[in-house]
Design goal:
Layout: H1 2-25, H2 36-45, E1 48-50, E2 63-65, H3 69-82, E3 86-91, E4 96-102, E5 109-118, E6 124-132, H4 141-157
Antiparallel strand pairs: 1-6, 2-6, 3-4, 4-5, 5-6
Length: about 160
């Protein structure tokens, strides 16, 4: 019985180390609001992330740019390509872009959907969704994809 307990304990420790390593590798903010416990609960129980205006995680709040939609569309496509993502669908008229990204650690495929709309203040609103194809937890990978796209798009939009 003690051998079984040791094996179970080692398995739990190993799984915790792998999960912790994946969260660290994804470079997501661990201690930013709403705090470590809430963030870990999100990273360990969700396999998708979507921006919205009132999101509890600051990095997942929708962004808008004071540029025409056509220009933001071009910049979003360039940001995705510069990030090494594979663009699988470009609909300039519908202002939608779809890409696939491989996670850095285990090379799982995640689907990214970028959609542009009108911002009430006259600019271009950007909505992003990142969804894992497998698993129930993404260890923050989808949030990391959105952070990466925001960072690159902010730099390109100046």
């Amino acid at each position: 019985m003690s051998m079984l307990l040791k094996i179970v304990s080692l398995t739990i420790v190993f799984a915790a180390v792998l999960a912790g390593g994946a969260v660290v590798k994804n470079q997501v903010p661990l201690t930013d609001p709403p705090g470590l416990v809430k963030r870990l609960a999100i990273y360990l129980t969700r396999n998708s992330a979507r921006t919205r205006a009132d999101h509890e995680l600051p990095e997942l709040r929708s962004r808008a740019y004071a540029l025409p939609p056509e220009r933001v569309f071009e910049l979003a496509a360039k940001a995705a390509q510069d990030a090494g993502w594979r663009i699988v669908d470009r609909d300039a008229g519908g202002r939608e872009l779809r890409a696939v990204v491989s996670t850095p650690w285990l090379k799982f495929k995640d689907d990214i959907h970028i959609e542009l709309g009108r911002d009430p203040e006259g600019g271009t609103a950007v909505s992003i969704e990142s969804r894992s194809r497998v698993g129930r937890a993404d260890f923050g990978a989808n949030i990391a994809h959105i952070i990466e796209l925001h960072r690159r798009l902010d730099a390109l939009a100046g």
